[in-house]
Design goal:
Blueprint (H helix, E strand, L loop, with lengths): L1 H33 L5 H33 L1 H19 L5 H4 L2 H29 L7 H29 L2 H6 L4 H17 L6 H4 L8 H40 L5 H29 L1 H24 L3 H29 L5 H29 L6 H20 L7 H4 L6
Helix pairs in contact: 1-2, 1-3, 1-5, 1-6, 1-8, 1-10, 2-3, 2-5, 2-14, 3-5, 3-8, 5-6, 5-14, 6-11, 6-13, 10-11, 10-12, 10-13, 10-14, 10-15, 11-12, 11-13, 12-13, 12-15, 13-14, 14-15
Length: 423
């Protein structure tokens, strides 16, 4: 289990590195480089628009790779999704800017971002299910939380590379070629990830399924459409919080508040470090007290914290901004630490890869794709403290709270607890 969990963590870290490095670049440099004819705010909005394309592609990726996962196994999904995401990320680092090839530059950017999202849409379902379906029922939350640590590691790696480049290069050097280096690094990481995953065995739960779904998506839409919509709505707040902190606040702090790029990255990264460290702790609580209570608690905390977080951000003071981000990340991980166990337990095994991944990634469209765009537009209409952003995030949290309230508890469920476990 430890080897399997470590390989899943490393794989998700690599794929989320690819995804997050684009978000950081969108917040810092892609607007002027690929949309130079726009105003600064409009350029940032356009860059975040290309960022959002990746989220739109993720549900499509979950359908494509979910079909493979439910028909042919979880393991092939991990290899194919990693290859697709890694190759498209390296290619982003090679795209000429608008000044070189004109309108073809942003079009290529959008196409490659779409492929990134397509790969990541399959990654989460494959990595989580392979771990969850190997895990003993009583410790499923803990072992399934390892892939959930991967996004924090990927985020820290992506932003750490950007922070190091920002410190060692001039603004002109970073804008000219430095921003490309993190994208090129994705190729090396992808090779390492493929090596780590080459020895993984197929999920025992998948091997026990005698009657595989012919068209998993059709069964999910027909029999589980309400569950998909509820899980998407429930998870929207997690995405909204994470990308409000990691992407929108980075752009807002550097452009509107005049905070140094390195200071903003350090504040955000410090909060994400705590988030990653708390993930297994929250997962163990989920194994003991249930998935749904932690989700409801985290959601309620998020609804109460969004106005204080935005107020602390508006001060521009590093310590206060860090405290604001920290509170948001703690609320976020209280929910998302148990999601890797919760979602698979909600769906029957024959359509689990498709159902869980589609619900998870639709939540990304609702919360992750829209938040940087909506928050940037709302902040442009406000003063130094963008209260409209706080109101928007609070509304998303309340929506998710209602959806979680309508979902059932899954621990303990006799049918699930009886599943054979390896390790």
């Amino acid at each position: 289990m430890l080897r399997l969990a470590a390989a899943s963590l490393a794989g998700t870290a690599i794929e989320f590195y690819d995804f997050f490095v684009y978000g950081t670049a969108a917040a810092l440099v892609l607007g002027p480089l690929f949309f130079p004819t726009f105003s600064p705010v409009a350029g940032t909005l356009a860059a975040f628009g290309t960022f959002g394309v990746g989220f739109v592609a993720r549900p499509l990726g979950s359908v494509l790779f979910g079909h493979i996962g439910d028909r042919h196994g979880r393991r092939p999904v991990l290899v194919a999704s990693l290859l697709l995401t890694g190759a498209s990320t390296v290619a982003v680092g090679c795209v000429p800017t608008y000044d070189t090839i004109g309108v073809a530059a942003p079009l290529l950017l959008v196409a490659l971002r779409f492929l990134q999202g397509l790969g990541l849409g399959g990654e989460w379902g494959g990595a989580v299910l392979l771990t969850a379906e190997h895990a003993p029922a009583g410790r499923r939350g803990l072992w399934s939380s390892f892939p959930q640590i991967g996004p924090a590691v990927g985020f820290l790696l992506a932003n750490g590379v950007v922070l190091a480049l920002s410190a060692s290069l001039s603004e002109a050097q970073f804008a000219q070629w430095g921003w490309r280096v993190p994208f090129w690094m994705a190729g090396v990481l992808a090779v390492a990830g493929l090596w780590l995953r080459s020895s993984l065995t197929e999920s025992p739960r998948f091997l026990e399924i005698d009657d595989h779904a012919r068209v998993p998506l059709a069964e999910v839409v027909r029999d589980h459409w309400r569950l998909v919509l509820l899980t998407a709505g429930a998870l929207a707040v997690g995405y909204a919080i994470f990308y409000a902190v990691s992407t929108w606040s980075l752009a807002y702090g550097t452009e509107r508040l005049g905070v140094d790029r390195g200071v903003m990255l350090t504040c955000i990264m410090a909060a994400v470090v705590v988030k990653g460290a708390l993930t297994p702790v929250a997962a163990v609580l989920g194994d003991r007290y249930g998935r749904r209570p932690l989700c409801l608690t985290g959601c309620a905390a998020a609804a109460l914290w969004m106005f204080p977080m935005v107020a602390l951000l508006g001060t521009g003071e590093p310590l206060l901004m860090f405290l604001g981000f920290l509170g948001a990340m703690v609320a976020f991980i209280t929910m998302f630490a148990v999601i890797a166990a919760y979602l698979p337990e909600l769906y029957e095994p024959r359509v689990r890869c498709t159902g869980a991944a589609v619900g998870y990634n639709l939540g990304g469209v609702l919360g992750g794709a829209l938040t940087p765009i909506v928050a940037t537009a709302l902040a442009d209409q406000g003063g130094r403290v963008p209260w409209g952003v706080a109101a928007y995030l609070t509304a998303v949290a309340l929506l998710s709270l209602g959806c979680f309230a309508l979902l059932p508890e899954t621990r303990p469920v006799p049918a699930v607890a009886a599943e054979p476990a390896s390790g």
